[in-house]
Structure formats: structure tokens, C-alpha cells
TrEMBL record, chain A:
<dbReference type="Pfam" id="PF13433">
    <property type="entry name" value="Peripla_BP_5"/>
</dbReference>
<dbReference type="GO" id="GO:0006865">
    <property type="term" value="P:amino acid transport"/>
</dbReference>
<dbReference type="InterPro" id="IPR000709">
    <property type="entry name" value="Leu_Ile_Val-bd"/>
</dbReference>
<keyword id="KW-0732">Signal</keyword>
<dbReference type="InterPro" id="IPR006311">
    <property type="entry name" value="TAT_signal"/>
</dbReference>
<dbReference type="InterPro" id="IPR039570">
    <property type="entry name" value="AmiC_PBP1"/>
</dbReference>
<protein>
    <submittedName>
        <fullName>Urea transport system substrate-binding protein</fullName>
    </submittedName>
</protein>
UniProtKB/TrEMBL annotation, chain B:
<keyword id="KW-0472">Membrane</keyword>
<feature type="transmembrane region" description="Helical">
    <location>
        <begin position="245"/>
        <end position="273"/>
    </location>
</feature>
<dbReference type="InterPro" id="IPR001851">
    <property type="entry name" value="ABC_transp_permease"/>
</dbReference>
<protein>
    <submittedName>
        <fullName>Urea transport system permease protein</fullName>
    </submittedName>
</protein>
<feature type="transmembrane region" description="Helical">
    <location>
        <begin position="325"/>
        <end position="345"/>
    </location>
</feature>
<feature type="transmembrane region" description="Helical">
    <location>
        <begin position="7"/>
        <end position="26"/>
    </location>
</feature>
<dbReference type="InterPro" id="IPR017778">
    <property type="entry name" value="ABC_transptr_urea_perm_UrtC"/>
</dbReference>
TrEMBL record, chain C:
<dbReference type="InterPro" id="IPR001851">
    <property type="entry name" value="ABC_transp_permease"/>
</dbReference>
<protein>
    <submittedName>
        <fullName>Urea transport system permease protein</fullName>
    </submittedName>
</protein>
<feature type="transmembrane region" description="Helical">
    <location>
        <begin position="52"/>
        <end position="76"/>
    </location>
</feature>
<dbReference type="GO" id="GO:0006865">
    <property type="term" value="P:amino acid transport"/>
</dbReference>
<keyword id="KW-0029">Amino-acid transport</keyword>
<dbReference type="InterPro" id="IPR017779">
    <property type="entry name" value="ABC_UrtB_bac"/>
</dbReference>
<dbReference type="GO" id="GO:0022857">
    <property type="term" value="F:transmembrane transporter activity"/>
</dbReference>
Length: 414, 382, 297
């Protein structure tokens, strides 16, 4: 395996010829530096710590299996402290000072947006493991989780056809992702001949659900689409049941409620509700069972749960390894190019990186939560679905907006 | 002795300013950018010290002014970004406006969504800069006039400012079509004035920040030495006495409240230049309280003390949080520092330095006196 | 409409539960305890721990959490608050540091996570506290359906307020506390052991927060910074109500709760919160000492 060390220096404008050769020979056998940037303190550490753990587990596994092209990976872990300011600061440290060739990080869009300028201007690479709202076409980010079309395009038709629901109450936390999900949902609801009775938001992190659930109760809807995020989810489901609403009559159909929140709210509150994710702990394959088992061992917690971003964080490292080996060098943009079309068998099943928009082909799945806290997969797309980050604006698989060359904004329909 | 102290104080200012101006000779680009961010925080420390230390107004919502300054310049820079330029319309249009657009509306700043016309003047960087200073000052003027005319003081001022910053943050997050809500303004262009580009990692930008801070320090120090500065301190020390002496107390308070807001707004603009984004997190309560802690650590009664306090805490924070063994525990250490400083160094570093110099001067002048005494005793013996 | 008023009442009672302890410590001792929210959080964690490790339900958690948080409060008073009397704003900063410390200790499982030891019920994640069947679902009162858990919260809140009132106005300790609120030095001159009474007051205030934490655990979710927004809300209630005034806090909590519920019902939740902040600002501007100022002498 021949790997040049161009990378280490391509970003450092100040380096002179002499240190170049020195660095080159000294680094040739040294480890490959990558950054791992998640919040280990502050409110978001609830989820982001598990993403850090999954990334570190994947790195440990790659290293144990001989590393990348024979070289070990050295992970530099930084704490984003649940604050975009810190994220921005640490990202530039990882890219400029530590000269990492790739950084794995972020859970929220706010933190991704805050670090993007660093990666775009410094021609570096960011691997982002969370489902998000789409409408982004960066050439310096690999998106390893879903965009709205991969979470909703079979969810709403399924609710409408299989469950026979027609009147939807859309509720979410007040920020970009839930609002974009609501927009895509409305399009799909109309296509199904249904209607939405309300589109309401609660401040992020607010958990006083009394008024909202009361509104749902009086709205006459027959299903709730929930894009509620974070710890508010738990309070929502509890209030829902405590105000006497039943998941049998008015099911909550959620895009963010994952195994973590289900475990935290007490399974009896979610029993009968639905979630749509490409990855669910309930995927019944040996690969997934082994993954869950290894993760629990890694974090030394026999009750630990896995969830969709966690799986993507894990899978991202392996895809990155393949890309590095294909690129044959450690220049971030060369790795980016090698990412295109990369495929692997992850715990989630077969995945593939789209060559045009650098998002991931994923299989949409719908789960119904049982009284034991386990999801049961009730519907599954037949094959991995192409990611369309601009689906809400008319993007289709035949008419891509975000291409290899960049975003074609003339196609955006308002 | 007072004169010696004043000279020493002046020396500290000069040494500090010399240090920050010479820093680019020793630092690589990343360290320079990081230091620039810290200097911006130092400027916030100065703003807090001015209102808290000199006027006795503990503002728990300083983030409001910082955030407003940041958003004003951020809007200008957002319109200057390549993405906003390339929307195929006559005016640049921020990308997030497209996804918040009213269906079927024209892609143009005038009418893409309700209120987007407010952005039109921000196409000029000068307008953004002007607003970045004017808006925080105006808001502070309005707020200050109401609060200080009503003779609201102490903790009640803190609560009002706190409620204000939370209220504005809520509104900014809610007005997503205009502000991009929670995600804030990102993907910004580079500020260009004339031929000069302020790239965040360049020495030019660093100098902009360092010189701004130096000027702020000097002007702030001069301001506190003026008559109005003296009156202000009299108000802080005894509100009623100052009032009975016939001073229009509230106007002095409003003036210094505005000055503090102006500095914070200006710091917000500088932060947008060095960090390349503006976000509602600037208006989170924890950030505003953190600023106050910087000033407390540095010494609330001293402008330069508060500035150094901000720098110091940030240096400690980054170096502790970037030590691999402490990456999860650094907040414990920061929390401990806060508690210990408040308990054992009530006047902060500046207070400590001041009492140390006092003692040294006393000892020095004491020894000099003793020597003189010894001399005079010797002389008759000769 | 009855629904909305009921929700307003329950929102107000949640606010009051958090604010009650703050009102006492702030009024009597001149301490702005930013770590008060962390006491709520500790109360919630006590509930989680007693149910996972001892198998005890919410009924037992109420007194246990009260005792645990009261003891922690006593410790904080001894170590920190005692040194800061008379320095109102310094107490705010020091307790802010304490809040960061407590949060991070829970997250790091008191440092054990460094040794790879994991304690069920601690750590950075979300914790689960199940509530007994008696409190789940709805109850029918005069033909209207009410959320049982909220009814329970309102009752506990009323009970705690009653107990606080009784202690403050019917016991000798309470009389001493009221004397200190009026004029601490005169109280000391009359032979009241101000230090001891203050320590007890702080412990009692913390204990009340602990009880609030138990109720929160069954209502929201339990995680290390669950209470950061609560302390701000509690603080606003105290200031609007008038420092040192029990009745003021009760009315302010009721007012803000109803404003929140009514606006949320008419418009939406985000506007409701904005209106609450606006009401707070207006109240202070119009009545600078709060709705019910307690006269100090």
C-alpha cells in the first residue's frame, strides 16, 4: 500500500521544504490523524456521547484489524460542549493545528453549520452521522444518515393506506429540521388525499406539553406526525397518555423518537406508536445483533441501546477506511472523491454513498413500538432509496439538483 | 504613592497592549485566530466591567448586545456569500430564505417572504457595520431610560436584562424565515472594506481585533477618569447621596449602560469576522453569565483586569479541555475555579494585584522611610 | 376553557414548586441560588436511584429526596454560602459554579466513569422513572377529564405550600426566619442564632427543590441539565412576586402559569413563552419591587 504524505502539508501554507521532507519520512509509518468532534458536556451529550463511543469503537475495530492500509488511526477527541461557538473553535483546531485528514462529528444541524466554513475553506472533510433536513449540497461533507425523503416517502403513504388515517396534526420543535419535515409531510399528505389540521411548534427543550396535547385532543385529528426533538419527546409521550389519548386511536408517528427516548420514557407510554428510521435496533440480522453486543461490551453497559445516528457514526468510519484505501493517499479531497459510490454491508444492511450529492442510499423502515420497549419492523422498503436532499423543492431521482458540480439553484421551485 | 500606583496601572495597560500587538510575530495562523476570538471575549469583559464595576449595573443579558451586533454584520456578510449571490436574481438572496419562502413568491429580497425587505439595505457592508453599533446602543438606550428613570436597581436590573435576552433569543429563533432560526447565520462572505479583505485567519483581521481592543481599553479608561466617570462611581457607591447632591443620576447610568452595549455590539461584529457565523447561542443565558464570571475572575473594578480575566479563563478552558485525559472533566475544573475565585478572591486578579502592589509599595516606602530615619540618626553621630 | 384553566393551574404549580425554595432562601438570606435547579435535578435522580436500586416507588421517594437534597443544601451552605452573606451577586456567581460542578459530577457518575465503572441510573443519558398506575391516565371531576398526574402535582404543591406557610407563621423557627427577613442584624441583636437559622432555611429550601424534582421525574425526563430552564423560571416568579413574600410568589406563579396556558391556547407555545417574559419585564418596570414587596426595616 503506497500512501504519500502530501496531506499533512497541503493544508499548512507556512511549511518550508526542509520540514516537508522531515515530516514526510517521520510520518510515513506514523498513525493517520482523524478528529472526533462530539459534545461530551452540556445538554447534547445525552446523545452525542454515544456517537463518540460508536465512532471510537469503529476506529478501535479498524485498528485491531490492521488499520488503514497497514497504518493505525489516531483519533483526536474534542468536546463541542453543546455550543456552536465551541464547535467552530474545536473544528479549526482539528483541521488547522492537528492537521486531521477527516473529522467525524456533529449531531445537530446548528453545530454542522457552524463548522462548515472551516471545512470548506480549508478543503477538508467532515463525516456527519445524523438524519437532517436536507437543503445542503456541501462538497466537504459526507452525510451518512437520512434526508426527509428517506424518512417520509414511505411513512406517510403507509400511515394513510395501511392505517387508514386522513387527518394529521403535525407537531415539532421550533427549528429548521421539524419545519422542513412538516413541509415534506404536507406534500405527501396531500398526495394521499388526506389533510393536516394543524402545524404547531414548541420551543426546543421546552417540556410543558399541557396546552399542546390539549389542542391535539380537541383538533379532531386521527394521527399525529411528530418531529419533536430531544428530551421534550419524553414529556410529550407521557402527557399524551396522561391526558387520556390512546395510541390505538390516534397514533404518534415520529421521525426522531428513537430507542433512546423510548427507553427513557418508560415503554408503556410509547406502546403502539410508530417511528420511521433507516436503522432500528430491531433489525433482525446477525450483523446487527453482533453490532449491538459489541457496542454494549465497548461501553460496558449491558442495557445500552443503539440508534440510527449511532449506527451511522459507526458505519462512517468503515466507509472512510474503504475510501482512503481506494484513494491511495490521504488528501482530504481525494478521500472525498473516493467516497463516491463506496458500498459496504453495515449493521443496517447494504449502503452506498451517492456519487453526486455525497449522501447515503438507505432503506426506509417503519417500526411500531411494543409494550416491552422493542420496535417491531412493520414495513420496509424493498431496496435502499436514493437520497434527495432537495425533495421538498421538486428534486427527483431523474432531476437532481445537487450534483457533483454543485447545486443547480435555477431548478429550485418555490 | 497614589501616583506610583497610577503609573504602574498605566504600565500594565501599555505592556498588555504591546503584547497583543506583537503576538502575530510569534504565532501561527491557527493560534492567531484563536487569540483573536479570545480578545473579542476580552472586549466583552471590558464591557461588563464598565457597567458592573463602574456603574454598579450587573447586566445578566450582555449577550443581547453581543448577539445584536453579530446578527447585524452577519446579515451583511450573508448577502455577500457566493451562495447568496448565485440564486439567479437581481439581489443576493440568503439560501435559507428559499426554504422558508412563501410558495410561488419571487426569488428576490423584496418579497421572497414577509419581512425579507428588511434585509435590502444590508447589501452595503457599511450599513451592516453601522447597524451593528447603532442597534445595540439604541436598544440599551431605550431599555436603560425606562429602567433607570424608574430607579430600578440591583438585582431587578439583572432580572430585566436577563428576561430581555431570553425574550429576544426566543423571537430570533421563532422568526426563522428572516433569521434562519436555531441554526443562525452561516456560510458568510468575507468582510471587504475598500481593498482590504478580512480573512479570519489573516494577520490583518487579528490586528483589527487587537487594535479595536486597545482603543476600547484606552477610551474606557479615559472615560472612567472623566468627571462623568467619577460621578458614576459616586452613584454606584451611594445612589441617594449622589441624587441629593443634585446629579441627574439616571442619565449617567443610561450613558454608561449604552457605552457598555456599544462595546458588546462591536465585539459581536468582530466575533462574526473571526468565527464566520452568528447564532442564537450568543444569546443563551449561560453565555451571558459566563461573561460576568470572566469579569469577576479578572476583577470587576478594573477594565484591564476583566479583559485579562476573560483571556485567562478561555486559555485555561481550552488547554484543560484539549488535554485528552480531561476532555470530559474540564467543566468540573472550570466550575471549581468559579467557586474558588468568588470565595477567596472577591476582587479578582486585579484586586489581588492591587493589594500586592499596595503592600509592596508600603514596604518599599516604609523601608525608604526607615532608611531616611536611619540616615538622620546617623548624621549627628558623625 | 376549564381544560385551559386547569393546565394553567398545573403549570403555575410546577413553577411554584421550584420557586418556593428559592423564595425562602432569597428572601431570608439574600442568596440567589443558581444551583437551586440542580437541587431539583438531584431530587429527580434520587427518585431514579431509589427505584432502580431499592425498588421503592414515588411515595417513598418524596421524603427520601427531601432529606437527600436538604443534606446537600446544608453542605453547600456550610462550604460556600456562609462565606458570602451580604454579597448578593457573588452568591449568584459562586452557585453558578456549583451548578456546573453538580451537573458534571452526575454526568461523570462522580468520577467513576473514568475507571470504567457504570452505575445504573447515573451518567449523561436520559433516565426513566415509572409512575404508579394510580397516577396514570385521567380522572373525571364534575364531568371534565383531568390528567391525574397533574392533579397530584397540584395537590403536592398545595401541601408543600401549606407546610411552608405553617413553618413560617406558626413555629418559633419560622418567626425567627421572618425576623431575619425584616432585619437580620436586629434579629441577631435579639439573640437569634442567625447562622443556624440560615443554615436550616437553606436546607429546607433545598429540600423543597428535591420534592419538586421527584414530581418532575414522573412528568418530564431525568438528565443532568434538566433543570437549567427551571431555575430561570423560578427566579422570575420570585422577583415578580416580591422578594420575601410567600403570598407574592404564589400569586406570581399562578399568574405566569395562566398567562402561559391562555396564550398557548389562543396562539402558540412559543408566543406564550415570549408573552411570559414580557409580563415579567412589565411587572418589574411598573412595580419595581414586585407585586408584594416585603418591607425591610
Amino acid at each position: 500500500m503506497s500512501m504519500t504524505r502530501r496531506t499533512m502539508l497541503s493544508v499548512s501554507a507556512a511549511s518550508l521544504a526542509a520540514p516537508y521532507f522531515f515530516t514526510r519520512s517521520a510520518q510515513a509509518a506514523g498513525p493517520i490523524k482523524v478528529g472526533v468532534l462530539f459534545s461530551l458536556t452540556g445538554g447534547l451529550s445525552i446523545i452525542e456521547k454515544s456517537l463518540r463511543d460508536a465512532t471510537m469503537m469503529a476506529i478501535a475495530e479498524v485498528n485491531a484489524a490492521g488499520g488503514v492500509g497497514g497504518r493505525q488511526i489516531e483519533a483526536i477527541v474534542e468536546d463541542g460542549a453543546s455550543d456552536p461557538k465551541t464547535y467552530n473553535e474545536k473544528a479549526s483546531k482539528l483541521v488547522i493545528r492537528d492537521k486531521c485528514v477527516t473529522v467525524f462529528g456533529s449531531y445537530t444541524s446548528a453545530s454542522r453549520k457552524a463548522v462548515l466554513p472551516v471545512f470548506e475553506k480549508r478543503k477538508n472533510l467532515y463525516v456527519y452521522p445524523t438524519f437532517y433536513e436536507g437543503f445542503e449540497c456541501s462538497k466537504n461533507v459526507i452525510y451518512t444518515n437520512a434526508v426527509p425523503n428517506q424518512q417520509l416517502s414511505n411513512f406517510i403513504p403507509w400511515i394513510s393506506k395501511t392505517l387508514g388515517k386522513k387527518k394529521f396534526f403535525i407537531v415539532g420543535s421550533n427549528y429548521v429540521y421539524p419545519r422542513e419535515m412538516a413541509k415534506v409531510s404536507k406534500i405527501l399528505i396531500q398526495q394521499q388525499g388526506g389533510e393536516y389540521v394543524a402545524d404547531e411548534y414548541l420551543e426546543l427543550g421546552d417540556s410543558e406539553w399541557g396546552s399542546m396535547v390539549n389542542k391535539i385532543k380537541n383538533s379532531g385529528c386521527d394521527a399525529v406526525i411528530s418531529n419533536v426533538v430531544g428530551d421534550s419527546i419524553v414529556a410529550f409521550y407521557r402527557e399524551f397518555k396522561n391526558q387520556g389519548l390512546s395510541q390505538d386511536k390516534i397514533p404518534i408517528c415520529a421521525s426522531v423518537t428513537s430507542e433512546i427516548e423510548i427507553a427513557a420514557m418508560g415503554p408503556e407510554y410509547a406502546a403502539g406508536s410508530y417511528s420511521s428510521f433507516p436503522y432500528l435496533m430491531a433489525i433482525d440480522t446477525d450483523a446487527n445483533k453482533s453490532f449491538i453486543e459489541r457496542y454494549r461490551k465497548f461501553v460496558n453497559d449491558p442495557k445500552a441501546v443503539t440508534h440510527s445516528p449511532l449506527q451511522s457514526a459507526y458505519m462512517g468510519v468503515f466507509l472512510w477506511k474503504q475510501a482512503c484505501e481506494k484513494a491511495g493517499e490521504l488528501e482530504p479531497l481525494a478521500i472525498r472523491d473516493a467516497f463516491k459510490g463506496q458500498e459496504m454491508d453495515a449493521p443496517i444492511g447494504r449502503v452506498k454513498i451517492d456519487g453526486e450529492n455525497l449522501h447515503t442510499y438507505l432503506t426506509p423502515r417503519i417500526a411500531q413500538w411494543g409494550a416491552d420497549g422493542q420496535g417491531k419492523i412493520v414495513d420496509e422498503y424493498k431496496e435502499p432509496l436514493r437520497p434527495l436532499p432537495y425533495a421538498a423543492y421538486g428534486e427527483t431521482a431523474d432531476n437532481l439538483f445537487c450534483k457533483e458540480s454543485g447545486l443547480d439553484s435555477s431548478k429550485l421551485k418555490l | 504613592m497614589q501616583a506610583t500606583k497610577l503609573r504602574l496601572n498605566l504600565a500594565v495597560y501599555l505592556i498588555f497592549i504591546a503584547c497583543i500587538l506583537l503576538a502575530p510575530m510569534f504565532l501561527e495562523e491557527f493560534a492567531l485566530n484563536r487569540l483573536a476570538k479570545f480578545l473579542v471575549f476580552g472586549m466583552l469583559g471590558v464591557a461588563i466591567a464598565l457597567s458592573w464595576g463602574y456603574a454598579g449595573i450587573l447586566n445578566l443579558g450582555q449577550g443581547l448586545f453581543f448577539g445584536l451586533g453579530a446578527y447585524m454584520l452577519g446579515m451583511s456578510l450573508k448577502l455577500a456569500s457566493p451562495t447568496s449571490m448565485a440564486q439567479g436574481s437581481d439581489t443576493p438572496v440568503p439560501d435559507f430564505m428559499l426554504w422558508n419562502a412563501e410558495p410561488g413568491s419571487k426569488t428576490d429580497l423584496c418579497c421572497i417572504n414577509g419581512g425579507s425587505w428588511l434585509w435590502i439595505p444590508f447589501q452595503s457592508h457599511w450599513f451592516g457595520i453601522l447597524m451593528g453599533m447603532a442597534l445595540p446602543t439604541l436598544v440599551a438606550f431605550g431599555l436603560g431610560t425606562v429602567v433607570f428613570r424608574k430607579r430600578i436597581a440591583g438585582v431587578f436590573v439583572s432580572v430585566i436584562t436577563l428576561a430581555c435576552v431570553l425574550l429576544v433569543r426566543l423571537l430570533i429563533v421563532d422568526a426563522q424565515p428572516l433569521t434562519n432560526g436555531w441554526n443562525g447565520l452561516t456560510d458568510l462572505g468575507v468582510l471587504t472594506i475598500g481593498e482590504t479583505e478580512f480573512d479570519p485567519y489573516s494577520a490583518t483581521t487579528y490586528y483589527l481585533v487587537a487594535i479595536s481592543l486597545s482603543v476600547t481599553l484606552i477610551l474606557g479608561r479615559l472615560l472612567t477618569e472623566t468627571r462623568s466617570g467619577m460621578i458614576l462611581q459616586a452613584i454606584r457607591d451611594d445612589y441617594n447621596r449622589a441624587r441629593y447632591l443634585g446629579f441627574e443620576v439616571s442619565s449617567f447610568q443610561v450613558f454608561f449602560f449604552c457605552a457598555s452595549a456599544l462595546i458588546a455590539g462591536y465585539a459581536g461584529m468582530l466575533y462574526v469576522i473571526v468565527a464566520e457565523f452568528a447564532s442564537p447561542s450568543f444569546m443563551e443565558l449561560s453565555f451571558s453569565i459566563t461573561m460576568v464570571v470572566w469579569a469577576a475572575v479578572g476583577g470587576r473594578g478594573s477594565l484591564i483586569g476583566a479583559c485579562i480575566g476573560a483571556l485567562l479563563i478561555n486559555v485555561i478552558e481550552t488547554s484543560v479541555s484539549e488535554t485528552p485525559a480531561l476532555v470530559e472533566a474540564w467543566k468540573v475544573i472550570i466550575g471549581l475555579i468559579f467557586v474558588l475565585v468568588v470565595l477567596f478572591m472577591p476582587q479578582g486578579i486585579a484586586g489581588l494585584a492591587s493589594s500586592v502592589t499596595d503592600r509592596a509599595l508600603e514596604r518599599f516606602s516604609g523601608r525608604a522611610a526607615r532608611l531616611r530615619q536611619a540616615d538622620s540618626q546617623h548624621q549627628p553621630a558623625e | 376553557m376549564v381544560d385551559t384553566l386547569f393546565i394553567g393551574l398545573s403549570v403555575g404549580s410546577v413553577l411554584l414548586l421550584v420557586a418556593l425554595g428559592l423564595a425562602i432562601t432569597y428572601g431570608a438570606m439574600g442568596v440567589i441560588n443558581m444551583a437551586h435547579g440542580e437541587m431539583v435535578m438531584l431530587g429527580a435522580y434520587t427518585t431514579v436511584m431509589t427505584s432502580t436500586w431499592l425498588g421503592l416507588g414515588i411515595w417513598w421517594s418524596l421524603p427520601i429526596a427531601f432529606v437527600v437534597t436538604a443534606l446537600v443544601g446544608l453542605l453547600i451552605e456550610r462550604l460556600i454560602i456562609r462565606r458570602l452573606y451580604g454579597r448578593l451577586l457573588d452568591t449568584l456567581l459562586a452557585t453558578w459554579g456549583v451548578a456546573i460542578l453538580i451537573q458534571q459530577m452526575i454526568r461523570l457518575e462522580f468520577g467513576l466513569s473514568f475507571f470504567g465503572i457504570h452505575i445504573q441510573g447515573l451518567g449523561p443519558g436520559l433516565q426513566n422513572m415509572s409512575i404508579p398506575d394510580v397516577l396514570a391516565g385521567t380522572i373525571n371531576i364534575f364531568g371534565a377529564e383531568f390528567n391525574k398526574y397533574r392533579v397530584f402535582m397540584i395537590l403536592v404543591c398545595a401541601l408543600m405550600t401549606g407546610v411552608t406557610w405553617f413553618i413560617m407563621y406558626k413555629t418559633s423557627v419560622g418567626m425567627q426566619v421572618r425576623a431575619i427577613i425584616r432585619n437580620a442584624r436586629m434579629a441577631a441583636a435579639c439573640g437569634i442564632d442567625v447562622k443556624r437559622v440560615n443554615a436550616l432555611t437553606f436546607a429546607f429550601g433545598s429540600g423543597l427543590a428535591g420534592v419538586a424534582g421527584v414530581l418532575m421525574a414522573g412528568f418530564k425526563t431525568v438528565f443532568p441539565d434538566m433543570s437549567t430552564p427551571m431555575v430561570v423560571d423560578g427566579f422570575l416568579v420570585v422577583v415578580v412576586g416580591g422578594i420575601g413574600s410567600l403570598i407574592g410568589s404564589i400569586l406570581a406563579a399562578g399568574l405566569l402559569g395562566q398567562v402561559n396556558a391562555l396564550v398557548a391556547w389562543g396562539h402558540n407555545d412559543v408566543i406564550a413563552r415570549a408573552v411570559v417574559f414580557a409580563v415579567v419585564i412589565l411587572t418589574i418596570v411598573l412595580k419595581p419591587n414586585g407585586l408584594f414587596a416585603y418591607k425591610r426595616r
